[in-house]
Design a protein that fits this description.
Elements: H1 2-17, E1 26-30, H2 41-55, E2 58-62, H3 65-68, H4 71-74, E3 79-83, H5 92-103, E4 107-111, H6 122-128, E5 132-134, E6 139-145, E7 159-164, E8 168-169, E9 177-183, E10 191-192, E11 197-198, E12 206-213, E13 216-221, H7 233-248
Parallel strand pairs: 1-2, 1-3, 3-4, 4-13
Antiparallel strand pairs: 5-8, 6-7, 6-9, 9-12, 10-11, 12-13
């Protein structure tokens, strides 16, 4: 009888605890490269995994496109992060599956060299928004806020120092909402690779942006070249903001606006 009572008490305790709480959303972290391989990949993976723990979302990491770029697998995730991908990483069948995923309301997050990925896939290049052209050496420059009312933007100062590999991009391929830009007067954008040259983008040099895209959502940040950047709380909060928006579609207002009380 005593053993039965102990068993019953244990079962009651388990029932009282209720079901385990699931994470708020699931993210596929994709890191396949078919060109330049960034040293920061593993630091980036660790950082996104830690963001998952901090903000209670599930992260599945792979570089194996054949394993996840199909309808059944993609349906498990609310957002897909292309972290430091390069080159031609998906075949035609996988590309078609990813297009269907976005059109069903999925989210895309591109980090840094995601803009140096899949140049021959027009649908993808339009989703990214701008494609990589060239970059100078890593330098410190002034980062400028273009829009604060977006998740993850509220901690940036209007102008702040940031060190990164400042991509020079080609023309916009879609109507984009810009979040960050870099002040070209604060660093040297000129570079010469022989067959390719760069002189900067002029008065407006975008760094991060987002758009609604064919039924889904797409966020891109050009920050994140260096491994050490993935230990920067400001950058990580910016990255989480993009993931959060891509996965949920929820916006954010940085400053609460109150209507003034009319005079008596």
């Amino acid at each position: 009888m005593t053993k039965l009572l102990r068993t019953a008490a244990a079962l009651c305790g388990l029932l009282a605890m209720g079901p385990a709480q699931a994470e708020q959303f699931k993210v596929l972290l994709f890191t396949k490269t078919a060109g330049w391989h960034h040293d920061a990949v593993h630091a980036g993976v660790t950082a996104v995994q830690e963001l998952g723990k901090l903000h209670d979302f599930e992260v599945f990491w792979t570089a194996d496109a054949g394993r996840v770029m199909n309808d059944a697998e993609l349906a498990k995730y609310q957002a897909v992060v292309f972290l430091l991908t390069t080159g031609d990483v998906l075949d035609d069948t996988q590309q078609a599956a990813f297009e269907r995923y976005i059109r069903r309301g999925g989210g895309y997050v591109g980090v840094h060299s995601a803009a140096d990925t899949e140049y021959g896939w027009p649908w993808y290049t339009k989703m990214v928004g701008h494609m990589f052209h060239i970059h100078p050496a890593v330098q410190t420059a002034v980062l400028k806020v273009e829009q604060r009312d977006f998740p993850g933007m509220e901690r940036f100062a209007p102008r702040s120092l940031f060190t990164d590999e400042w991509y020079e991009y080609g023309p916009a391929r879609a109507k984009l909402n810009y979040l960050l830009s870099v002040d070209e007067s604060t660093y040297a954008p000129q570079t010469d690779w022989g067959d390719k040259k760069g002189k900067g983008m002029g008065a407006f040099h975008p760094v991060a942006w987002y758009q609604d895209y064919e039924g889904g959502r797409a966020f891109y940040t050009g920050l994140g070249h260096m491994a050490a950047t993935y230990r920067d709380p400001l950058f990580l909060h910016h990255l989480y903001g993009g993931i959060y928006w891509a996965a949920t579609g929820k916006g954010f207002r940085a400053d609460e606006r109150r209507l003034e009380k009319p005079p008596a």
